[in-house]
Amino acid sequence: MAVLLVMFLHLRDLERVYRADAVLPGWADIGHSGVDLFFVISGFIMVLIGHAYPATRGAAGRFLYHRWARIYPTYWFWFLLTLAFYLSAPAWLRFEAGQVTHLVESFFLIPTWTPQLVPVSWTLKYELYFYLIFSLVILVPARRRILLLLVWAGYMLIGQQFCYDAPDVLCHKSLFLTMHPLAFEFLFGAVVAGIYLYRRSLHPRFIFILGSCLLVGSFVIYIRSGVNLDDNSWYRVLLFGFPSALLLYGCVELERQQGLRVPAWVVVIGNASYSIYLSHFLLFDLLYGRLATLSVLPAALVAGIVFTLSLGVGLMAYRWVERPLLHLSRGCFGSARYDPAGQKAA
């Protein structure tokens, strides 16, 4: 449900832009945690998928291609659609200064310091970085992969001392990204997957409750402190990333041991989360811009309409855009014999 948290956050942000009578509460800022949960889940899934790959260059290449196919085609669809609105009807959207000055970098998800055409695409750059790391991990025998992940963690810890604290002086954005504390949330997910794969049962019910309590407590601390997460990334990792890892372990282990059933609507939204994530900011902006003239409608009603319509379009985009593009792009590389987790896990 990470994508719903992010949607709630962005809905609040845009409501404040378009409505003087905004009603969504300030505590909607907890939606930031959706990204942290998303990163932890990504680390978990990548280990589950990569675990079954043999230590060959062909397998690593296939893994990397399948991850590319998961990210780029659907992203490019929403990138080009946003660009079309900018070129044909720029008044319909709000564009930040510099948002359309580095289109090549935005298109290929190359790290830069400037705003991106698709605002949420910054997280995809971390995903691509993580995919690259895991394609290298696959090249070594399974028993040594944990060692390579530890080396990666050490690199990030040491590198931050020289680069992260003064990024504009000492390193390019790409290097800065490789050392960012948020990358540790992928490692949290990888650790959860390792425990899960080797069936080390660690009292999942207790850990689930502990993770839930810590996450709620983190929400309270964050709301009361008002800390800027962009300037306090380690604070964010500990506040949201660690509880998310505990919560994830509790969920997956309870599902395996005790048959925990996930509601069908959660599965549907989870499968479509990537399309919902990429589309919602554009849709929020368009819908709020069109509905702004209807000031007679209560702000709460407008927020509900915008949220519901955007969620619905995201679900349809998954069915009619993302899935066909995914099948087409993966089909270009042959069968998915080294992708045992398949599309659903990806």
Automatic annotation (TrEMBL):
One GO MF annotation is:
acyltransferase activity, transferring groups other than amino-acyl groups
Give GO terms for biological process: polysaccharide biosynthetic process
**Key word Membrane present:** yes
| Keyword Transmembrane among record annotations | yes
Q: Which UniProt keywords apply?
A: Membrane, Transmembrane, Transmembrane helix
Q: In terms of domain of life, where is this protein from? A: Bacteria
Q: Which GO terms describe its cellular component?
A: membrane
Listed transmembrane segments: 35-54, 75-93, 113-139, 146-162, 182-199, 206-227, 233-252, 264-284, 296-321
Give every Acyltransferase domain span: 2-314
The UniProt entry, under Pfam families, shows:
Acyl_transf_3 (PF01757)
Q: What is this protein called?
A: Peptidoglycan/LPS O-acetylase OafA/YrhL
Look up and give the organism this protein is from. Answer: Thiocapsa rosea
